Amino acid sequence: MLGLLLYLLWLPQLADYDPLLVTGPEPVAIDLLVWDQKRNREIPIRVRLPQASNAPIVLFSHGLGGSRTNNAFLAIHWAKRGYVTVFLQHPGSDESVWRELPPSQRYAAMKDAASAKNLKLRTEDVPAVLDQLAIWNHEATHRLYQAMDLNRIGMSGHSFGAGTSQAVGGQWYPLVRSRWWESRIDAAVMFSPSAPQRGDLKKAFGSVSIPWFLFTGTEDDSPIGGQSAADRLKVFPALPPGDKYECVLFGARHSAFGDRDLPGDSGRNPNHHRILLAFTTAYWDAYLKQNPAALVWLQGPSARALLQSGDTFQFK
Questions:
Q1: How many Cβ atoms sit within 10 Å of the Cβ of residue 261?
Q2: CA distances for 290 relative to 64, 186, 282, 310, angstroms
Q3: Which of 183, 114, 124, 174 is nearest to 153 (CA)?
Q4: What is the dihedral of CA 101, 68, 74, 284, to 10 degrees?
Q5: What is the pLDDT of residues 155-166, one digit of tens each?
Q6: Is the pLDDT of residue 10 over 70?
Q7: What does residue 160 show for φ and ψ, rounded to 5 degrees?
Q8: Phi and psi (nearest 5°) for 32?
Q9: Domain region containing 42
């Protein structure tokens, strides 16, 4: 009902709104290093700047064994749409885990890296990066000087990065929630979210107070981490109502949310990336830029028109 009401009220503005429309040159990738002195830890990041200054920020946390170069299709589109994209690389659960090992040893190394210790390190990387961005934003000689609006911040990630985003975005963990939740984050997007294997899901997700958008697929299983496609669907029902979204893509495997297929995958549906770009852009525009036409697009028939048979989309 709310979507229909918004659609009728903002119909004239909606006619000009298209989350897939991009203009201008491709943003240049800027590779930087964040030094967290307190933890003696170096965090590589890749930044892409939009043409406008003082722009909202969208952070991205890669999956297990990934890097700051992952999901470039999202970074480029979001930057062209007016966002400073900051893609993190998490030492200890990044590509260094497997890259120098023979293929026979990579699975075991990856499984070991999918640990609570690395989740903690990842969640602590987020405030460390935000603190450094704030410093650079005020340094007149830095390339990021006055580039960012640190009052408008989105968080996103895939797989282990989705778990990272959930942790800093308000998921409750026994004894650690106050340490992991990052209050500067205004909205979050999770590609391949995860549900706790034990405990009360309502308790884990019932205190989430910011907008969340969950993306998964009907075949979104992961060989590491014990998450099945069915497990990922348990998150949305446990979230409290109010600016919570879920899109389930028919036939989408775990790799559908990344740049390329994993070994053994095939038959990628090109419309899935089109949906990811359109839905996430409208979501960021609605909740970081406060664009009413974007919210109307997202909650109205225009978004659903991109879906194909078997795809589902809901919000509450």
A1: 14
A2: 33, 11, 10, 31
A3: 183
A4: 130
A5: 999 999 999 999
A6: no
A7: -60, -30
A8: -135, 165
A9: 2-315
